[in-house]
């Protein structure tokens, strides 16, 4: 009688390497930080309640990227430290989307 040999089950399939998991956690934390930045910056902006609700509903970084123009437009109506809020939002966007700035004409070969 022939005995069937089975291999032990691998429960780590799909779990990824520890570095992969840390990268996913870091990316998720950066996304959550950007959401909080959006919400802080839009706090007190006239008519931005709908925009704040869209930010709260965002599930992916690209959702926030698409809300950047309305967020900057909403900041035009804020009377307190508009420039500082704009800079804070721009820095927050740069953390997740660092390569999307326009080239300034000086490019390396």
DSSP helix count? Answer: 5
Globally, the shape reads elongated
Largest sheet composition:
none
Helix-strand pattern: HHHHH
Question: Low-confidence runs (pLDDT<50, min 5 residues)?
Answer: none
The oligomerization state is: single chain
Distance between the amino and carboxyl termini:
70 Å
Taking all Cα atoms into account, the compactness measure Rg is 22 Å
Structural class: mainly alpha
On the 0-100 scale, what is the average pLDDT?
Answer: 81
How many strand segments?
0
Report the sheet-strand fraction.
under 5%
- Helix coverage percent: 55-70%
Characterize this entry briefly.
With 109 residues, the chain is an all-alpha fold. The protein has helices at residues 18-42, 49-57, 61-66, 68-74, 82-96.
Q: Could you characterize the architecture of this molecule?
A:
This protein is mainly alpha-helical and 109 residues long. Helices cover 57% and strands 0% of the residues. The chain contains five helices and no strands. The protein has helices at residues 18-42, 49-57, 61-66, 68-74, 82-96. The longest helix has 25 residues, at 18-42. The radius of gyration is 22 Å and the shape is elongated. The chain starts with 17 loop residues before the first helix and ends in a 13-residue tail after the last helix.
Tell me the layout of helices and strands.
Layout: H1 18-42, H2 49-57, H3 61-66, H4 68-74, H5 82-96
Helix pairs in contact: 1-2, 1-5
């Amino acid at each position: 009688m022939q005995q069937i040999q089975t291999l032990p089950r691998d429960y780590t399939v799909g779990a990824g390497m520890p570095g992969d998991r840390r990268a996913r956690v870091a990316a998720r934390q950066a996304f959550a930080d950007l959401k909080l930045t959006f919400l802080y910056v839009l706090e007190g902006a006239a008519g931005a309640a709908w925009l704040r609700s869209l930010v709260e509903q965002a599930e992916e970084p690209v959702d926030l990227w698409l809300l950047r123009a309305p967020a900057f437009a909403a900041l035009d109506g804020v009377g307190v430290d508009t420039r500082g809020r704009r800079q804070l939002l721009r820095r927050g966007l740069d953390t997740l989307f660092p390569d999307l700035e326009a080239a300034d004409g000086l490019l390396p070969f």
